[in-house]
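stage 2 :: seqdesign
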């Protein structure tokens, strides 16, 4: 991949307040399967109607709970990529707000403080009846050192009963947003405020199709705030972006940061547009 052009570098490096909107493509570079990739996405093996709707939970909460817990354990084995780490380092040079559609914790494990998880988190839980948060740690972290030291997880979910809410006795569910559910109001408000405040909006690895997240960059466009898209492919956002970088986050984001000594890193020149 080639180095960004000087105008893009100046745009990125002069911004004092940066809002990063990340989507599934960013985590896919760490090995997290996406919902949308045909043949490789999570729904290639399971239907969203079976696992990611309130109706699925009502029909078989044990199945849904087991699948999400298994998925969370798989994600915990993965590592943040250089894109996640670049976003974390960016916070040393500017005020950085991270807003993500991803339900993993890779941004946090790279060192970022996430302002908003628009679609919830695999590692948060709440009662399906009264809504009370469930504070217990249900997904083990990685052991110290390199790699996961736990015994391998099974290739398929093993059925597990959801824990009971200590407040009302109802079954505990993942605090993720299922199809047909509204996004958390507070998370949406924080995301909108971050876009309004930004000098630069960086949109990384999103399809530009999932609402209301897809409208956030357009708010920036309407305000005249520069929008830079980082994605290997064209998306619904591409015609509206001020700049596009046709590369993945792991390749592109480190090049937008100034090196510690202030010198421009040696690299080849990226495909950028607009």
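stage 2 :: out
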């Amino acid at each position: 991949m080639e180095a960004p052009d000087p105008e893009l570098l100046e745009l990125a490096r002069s911004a004092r307040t940066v809002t990063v909107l990340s989507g599934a493509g960013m985590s896919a570079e760490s090995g997290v399967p996406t919902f949308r990739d045909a043949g490789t996405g999570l729904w290639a093996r399971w239907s969203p109607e079976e696992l990611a709707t309130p109706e699925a939970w009502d029909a078989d909460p044990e199945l849904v709970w087991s699948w999400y817990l298994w998925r969370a354990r798989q994600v915990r084995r993965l590592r943040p990529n250089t894109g996640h780490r670049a976003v974390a380092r960016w916070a040393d040079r500017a005020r950085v707000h991270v807003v993500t559609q991803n339900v993993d914790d890779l941004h946090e494990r790279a060192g970022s403080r996430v302002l908003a998880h628009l679609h919830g988190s695999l590692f948060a839980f709440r009662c399906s009846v009264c809504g009370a948060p469930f504070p217990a740690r249900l997904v083990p972290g990685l052991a110290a050192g390199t790699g996961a030291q736990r015994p391998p997880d099974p290739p398929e979910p093993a059925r597990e009963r959801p824990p009971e809410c200590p407040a009302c006795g109802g079954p505990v569910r993942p605090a993720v947003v299922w199809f047909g559910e509204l996004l958390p109001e507070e998370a949406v408000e924080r995301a909108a405020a971050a876009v309004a405040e930004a000098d630069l909006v960086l949109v990384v690895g999103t399809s530009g199709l999932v609402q209301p997240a897809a409208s956030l960059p357009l708010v920036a466009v309407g305000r005249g705030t520069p929008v830079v898209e980082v994605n290997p492919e064209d998306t619904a956002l591409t015609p509206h972006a001020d700049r596009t970088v046709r590369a993945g986050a792991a390749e592109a984001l480190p090049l937008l940061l100034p090196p510690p000594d202030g010198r421009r890193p040696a690299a080849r020149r990226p495909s950028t547009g607009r």
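stage 3 :: structure notes
- DSSP finds ten helices and nine strands in the chain.
- The domain at 6-273 is CATH 3.40.50.1220 (Rossmann fold).
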